[in-house]
């Protein structure tokens, strides 16, 4: 039993150290990573969530040090250090279950709805609550085993093989659980595919983002026209704009240069507004500006495109 407790301590140190370093990196570089791993697209994680995660793994490290000694004081430290991880995991389990209760098994892809496959249902609905449920059970089991070993150190040796087997089984399950990832935003060669224009990362419809323009209704030939184009929702930041460009849900966004690949006729962007100025020429009558394509980057760190135009009347 003592060797098993020490093995748990080593495992706690390795796992806790690895994830504590990752969480610490996101804490120090939150403005760059938004709490997301490299190559992962999705909504930015709240800062408080990363702080809780870091404290979680820090207590796991402390518990690992306590279990590694396998002495009375170490076992006490190890047992008490599990309280915060158990409470945190339980809270996240409750939150996860409450969120997933309203989830639908209908997935939106390219504005078309279809039923999720079993794998997609596991990834998007069931994996998270099951992950936290297994984690809570494993931590509680380890706490029970550590308290039992503490009694053994005090001379009350009434060990149980069933508890040992249960602890080893649950620990193996936790160790084998891969880190939870969200691969909801597709990308190709480092460029994001613009296929989530009207949905969030869970495939649920979002409020439409409209393109609006402020322009004069009537102008004369030779007159300088000044037009301002912006989006209806300020949490979608305009990073690039172009015109006369074919864009679809299969187009790619260059995440390094913040541009849509293949769009070369750029427009000037300033203070989250597209500025268009030109001298009016040609014939009289109603005129339409070529289709404008705006590339935005939302608070969720996801790129989307928006199409629109404006018209004006050239008087005699």
UniProtKB/TrEMBL annotation:
UniProt lineage: Bacteria, Pseudomonadati, Bacteroidota, Cytophagia, Cytophagales
Domain of life: Bacteria
Protein name (Swiss-Prot/TrEMBL): Uncharacterized protein
Keyword Transmembrane helix among UniProt keywords: yes
Taxonomic source organism: Algoriphagus confluentis
UniProtKB keywords: Membrane, Transmembrane, Transmembrane helix
Spans through the membrane: 7-27, 47-68, 80-98, 124-144
């Amino acid at each position: 039993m003592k060797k098993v407790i020490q093995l748990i301590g080593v495992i706690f140190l390795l796992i806790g150290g690895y994830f504590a370093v990752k969480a610490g990196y996101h804490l120090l570089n939150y403005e760059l990573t938004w709490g997301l791993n490299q190559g992962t697209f999705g909504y930015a994680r709240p800062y408080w969530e990363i702080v809780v995660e870091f404290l979680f793994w820090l207590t796991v490290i402390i518990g690992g040090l306590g279990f590694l000694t396998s002495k009375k004081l170490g076992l006490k430290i190890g047992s008490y250090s599990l309280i915060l991880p158990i409470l945190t995991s339980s809270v996240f389990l409750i939150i996860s279950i409450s969120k997933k209760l309203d989830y639908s098994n209908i997935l939106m892809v390219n504005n078309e709805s279809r039923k999720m496959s079993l794998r997609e249902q596991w990834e998007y609905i069931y994996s998270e609550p099951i992950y936290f449920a297994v984690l809570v059970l494993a931590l509680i089991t380890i706490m029970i085993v550590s308290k039992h070993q503490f009694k053994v150190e005090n001379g009350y040796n009434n060990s149980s093989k069933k508890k040992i087997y249960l602890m080893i089984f649950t620990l193996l399950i936790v160790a084998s659980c891969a880190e939870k990832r969200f691969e909801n935003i597709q990308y190709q060669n480092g460029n994001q595919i613009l296929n989530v224009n009207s949905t969030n990362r869970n495939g649920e419809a979002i409020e439409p983002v409209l393109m609006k323009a402020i322009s004069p209704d009537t102008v004369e030939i030779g007159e300088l026209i000044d037009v301002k184009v912006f989006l209806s929702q300020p949490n979608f930041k305009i990073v690039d704009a172009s015109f006369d460009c074919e864009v679809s849900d299969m187009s790619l966004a260059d995440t390094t240069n913040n541009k849509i690949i293949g769009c070369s006729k750029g427009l000037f962007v300033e203070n989250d507004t597209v500025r268009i100025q030109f001298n009016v020429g040609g014939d009289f009558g109603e005129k339409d500006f070529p289709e404008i394509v705006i590339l935005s980057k939302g608070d969720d760190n996801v790129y989307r495109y928006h199409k629109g135009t404006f018209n004006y009347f050239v008087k005699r």
